[in-house]
TrEMBL record:
Pathway annotation: Cell wall biogenesis; peptidoglycan biosynthesis
UniProt xrefs under Pfam families: YkuD (PF03734)
Signal peptide range in chain numbering: 1-19
Source organism: Methylobacterium mesophilicum SR1.6/6
Catalytic residues identified in the record: 152, 168
Keywords: Cell shape, Cell wall biogenesis/degradation, Glycosyltransferase, Hydrolase, Peptidoglycan synthesis, Signal, Transferase
InterPro entries: LD-transpeptidase (IPR050979), LD_TPept_cat_dom (IPR005490), Transpep_catalytic_dom (IPR038063)
CDD domains: YkuD_like
Any one GO MF annotation of this record: glycosyltransferase activity
PROSITE patterns: LD_TPASE, PROKAR_LIPOPROTEIN
GO BP field: cell wall organization; peptidoglycan-protein cross-linking; regulation of cell shape
Domain L,D-TPase catalytic: 60-192
GO cellular component terms, A-Z: extracellular region
Name the UniProt record assigns to this protein: L,D-transpeptidase
Protein backbone atom coordinates (compact mmCIF):
# COMPACT_ATOMS: atom_id res chain seq x y z
CA UNK A 1 0.00 0.00 0.00
CA UNK A 2 2.87 2.39 0.80
CA UNK A 3 4.40 1.70 -2.61
CA UNK A 4 1.13 2.57 -4.35
CA UNK A 5 0.85 5.75 -2.28
CA UNK A 6 4.46 6.70 -3.05
CA UNK A 7 3.95 6.09 -6.77
CA UNK A 8 0.77 8.19 -6.74
CA UNK A 9 2.68 11.04 -5.06
CA UNK A 10 5.48 10.84 -7.61
CA UNK A 11 2.97 10.93 -10.47
CA UNK A 12 1.21 13.96 -8.96
CA UNK A 13 4.52 15.80 -8.57
CA UNK A 14 5.55 14.87 -12.10
CA UNK A 15 2.27 16.36 -13.32
CA UNK A 16 3.36 19.73 -11.92
CA UNK A 17 6.54 19.75 -14.00
CA UNK A 18 5.48 18.03 -17.20
CA UNK A 19 2.26 18.24 -19.15
CA UNK A 20 1.63 16.20 -22.27
CA UNK A 21 0.95 18.11 -25.48
CA UNK A 22 -1.70 16.61 -27.79
CA UNK A 23 -0.72 15.54 -31.29
CA UNK A 24 -1.46 18.09 -34.01
CA UNK A 25 -4.22 17.48 -36.54
CA UNK A 26 -2.88 15.74 -39.66
CA UNK A 27 -3.94 16.06 -43.26
CA UNK A 28 -4.85 12.86 -45.13
CA UNK A 29 -1.48 13.01 -46.92
CA UNK A 30 0.39 13.44 -43.62
CA UNK A 31 -1.42 10.48 -42.07
CA UNK A 32 -0.78 8.31 -45.14
CA UNK A 33 2.92 9.18 -45.41
CA UNK A 34 3.57 8.96 -41.67
CA UNK A 35 2.00 5.50 -41.54
CA UNK A 36 4.74 4.37 -43.96
CA UNK A 37 7.52 5.31 -41.51
CA UNK A 38 7.38 2.83 -38.63
CA UNK A 39 7.33 4.57 -35.27
CA UNK A 40 10.19 3.28 -33.20
CA UNK A 41 10.10 2.76 -29.47
CA UNK A 42 11.93 5.57 -27.78
CA UNK A 43 12.74 6.80 -24.32
CA UNK A 44 9.72 8.72 -22.89
CA UNK A 45 12.24 11.36 -21.79
CA UNK A 46 12.23 12.45 -25.44
CA UNK A 47 8.44 12.75 -25.70
CA UNK A 48 6.74 16.10 -26.32
CA UNK A 49 5.87 17.88 -23.05
CA UNK A 50 5.00 21.33 -21.82
CA UNK A 51 7.52 22.25 -19.10
CA UNK A 52 8.59 25.29 -17.09
CA UNK A 53 10.82 27.34 -19.39
CA UNK A 54 14.48 26.59 -18.55
CA UNK A 55 15.91 28.82 -21.30
CA UNK A 56 15.09 32.38 -20.15
CA UNK A 57 14.71 33.39 -23.82
CA UNK A 58 11.85 35.49 -25.26
CA UNK A 59 8.60 33.77 -26.25
CA UNK A 60 8.66 32.32 -29.75
CA UNK A 61 12.37 31.46 -29.56
CA UNK A 62 13.51 27.93 -30.38
CA UNK A 63 16.38 26.75 -28.17
CA UNK A 64 18.24 23.51 -28.89
CA UNK A 65 20.21 22.11 -25.98
CA UNK A 66 22.53 19.71 -27.81
CA UNK A 67 23.88 17.98 -24.71
CA UNK A 68 20.35 17.27 -23.49
CA UNK A 69 19.11 16.30 -26.98
CA UNK A 70 16.12 18.58 -26.36
CA UNK A 71 14.53 21.40 -28.34
CA UNK A 72 12.47 24.01 -26.47
CA UNK A 73 9.87 26.30 -28.01
CA UNK A 74 9.50 29.16 -25.53
CA UNK A 75 5.91 30.18 -24.80
CA UNK A 76 4.55 33.44 -23.39
CA UNK A 77 3.41 32.05 -20.02
CA UNK A 78 6.75 31.02 -18.55
CA UNK A 79 6.38 27.62 -20.16
CA UNK A 80 8.07 25.88 -23.07
CA UNK A 81 7.22 22.90 -25.21
CA UNK A 82 10.06 20.41 -25.03
CA UNK A 83 10.75 17.96 -27.86
CA UNK A 84 13.35 15.20 -28.04
CA UNK A 85 15.77 15.55 -30.95
CA UNK A 86 18.81 14.05 -32.61
CA UNK A 87 21.73 16.42 -33.08
CA UNK A 88 24.96 16.54 -35.05
CA UNK A 89 27.56 14.02 -34.10
CA UNK A 90 30.71 15.45 -32.58
CA UNK A 91 32.45 16.06 -35.90
CA UNK A 92 29.48 17.86 -37.48
CA UNK A 93 27.65 19.60 -34.65
CA UNK A 94 27.29 23.35 -34.56
CA UNK A 95 26.18 26.05 -32.16
CA UNK A 96 25.03 29.57 -32.72
CA UNK A 97 22.02 31.70 -33.56
CA UNK A 98 19.99 31.58 -36.75
CA UNK A 99 16.53 32.45 -38.04
CA UNK A 100 13.87 30.33 -39.66
CA UNK A 101 14.20 31.51 -43.26
CA UNK A 102 11.51 29.29 -44.78
CA UNK A 103 9.36 26.27 -44.01
CA UNK A 104 8.40 23.31 -46.21
CA UNK A 105 6.07 20.31 -46.02
CA UNK A 106 7.48 16.94 -47.12
CA UNK A 107 10.51 18.72 -48.64
CA UNK A 108 12.84 17.30 -51.24
CA UNK A 109 16.31 16.45 -49.93
CA UNK A 110 19.34 17.85 -51.72
CA UNK A 111 22.44 16.84 -49.77
CA UNK A 112 25.22 19.43 -49.87
CA UNK A 113 28.41 18.72 -51.82
CA UNK A 114 30.41 18.13 -48.61
CA UNK A 115 28.02 15.37 -47.57
CA UNK A 116 28.14 13.70 -50.98
CA UNK A 117 31.95 13.83 -50.82
CA UNK A 118 31.91 12.06 -47.41
CA UNK A 119 29.21 9.58 -48.40
CA UNK A 120 29.13 9.05 -52.18
CA UNK A 121 26.08 6.77 -51.86
CA UNK A 122 23.75 9.66 -50.85
CA UNK A 123 21.72 11.38 -53.53
CA UNK A 124 18.93 13.92 -53.94
CA UNK A 125 15.48 12.60 -53.14
CA UNK A 126 11.92 13.82 -53.64
CA UNK A 127 9.92 14.63 -50.54
CA UNK A 128 7.95 11.80 -49.00
CA UNK A 129 8.05 9.17 -46.27
CA UNK A 130 11.50 7.83 -47.20
CA UNK A 131 13.16 11.24 -47.43
CA UNK A 132 15.68 11.96 -44.65
CA UNK A 133 13.96 15.35 -44.11
CA UNK A 134 10.68 13.73 -43.10
CA UNK A 135 7.37 15.54 -42.79
CA UNK A 136 8.55 19.14 -42.39
CA UNK A 137 11.69 21.25 -42.53
CA UNK A 138 12.57 24.63 -41.06
CA UNK A 139 15.42 26.12 -43.10
CA UNK A 140 17.88 28.17 -41.04
CA UNK A 141 19.75 31.26 -42.15
CA UNK A 142 22.33 33.56 -40.57
CA UNK A 143 21.98 37.20 -41.68
CA UNK A 144 20.12 36.05 -44.80
CA UNK A 145 22.66 33.37 -45.76
CA UNK A 146 21.56 29.73 -45.76
CA UNK A 147 23.41 27.86 -43.00
CA UNK A 148 22.68 24.51 -44.75
CA UNK A 149 21.31 23.36 -41.37
CA UNK A 150 17.70 22.44 -40.84
CA UNK A 151 15.28 21.44 -38.13
CA UNK A 152 13.44 18.59 -39.79
CA UNK A 153 11.61 15.30 -39.44
CA UNK A 154 13.26 11.97 -39.99
CA UNK A 155 12.84 8.57 -41.57
CA UNK A 156 14.90 7.16 -38.65
CA UNK A 157 12.83 7.92 -35.53
CA UNK A 158 14.74 5.28 -33.57
CA UNK A 159 17.72 7.67 -33.49
CA UNK A 160 15.96 10.43 -31.54
CA UNK A 161 18.11 11.26 -28.51
CA UNK A 162 21.39 10.49 -30.27
CA UNK A 163 24.18 12.57 -31.84
CA UNK A 164 24.09 11.11 -35.34
CA UNK A 165 23.28 13.80 -37.91
CA UNK A 166 25.54 15.92 -40.07
CA UNK A 167 24.56 18.93 -37.99
CA UNK A 168 20.82 19.18 -38.59
CA UNK A 169 18.33 18.87 -35.76
CA UNK A 170 16.09 15.84 -36.35
CA UNK A 171 12.69 15.35 -34.77
CA UNK A 172 10.02 12.67 -34.84
CA UNK A 173 7.67 13.50 -37.73
CA UNK A 174 4.67 14.12 -35.45
CA UNK A 175 6.80 16.50 -33.37
CA UNK A 176 8.15 18.47 -36.32
CA UNK A 177 4.57 18.90 -37.62
CA UNK A 178 3.63 20.29 -34.20
CA UNK A 179 6.62 22.67 -34.16
CA UNK A 180 6.03 23.71 -37.80
CA UNK A 181 2.44 24.66 -36.97
CA UNK A 182 3.56 26.85 -34.05
CA UNK A 183 6.60 28.66 -35.49
CA UNK A 184 6.55 31.51 -38.02
CA UNK A 185 9.19 32.34 -40.59
CA UNK A 186 11.61 34.74 -38.90
CA UNK A 187 11.65 32.93 -35.54
CA UNK A 188 14.99 32.95 -33.71
CA UNK A 189 16.78 29.62 -33.26
CA UNK A 190 19.57 29.26 -30.68
CA UNK A 191 21.65 26.09 -30.73
CA UNK A 192 23.73 25.65 -27.57
Amino acid sequence: MRIVSALASILLLAGCSFKGVPDPALSARDAEFMALVPEAEFDPHFARYQVSDPTHEPPGTIVVETRERQLYLVQADGKAIRYGVSVGDEAYGWTGTARVDRKAEWPAWNPPAEMIKRWPHVHAMQGGPMSPLGARALYLSDHGKDTLYRIHGTNEPEKIGQAVSSGCIRMRNIDVVDLYNRVPVGATVIVR
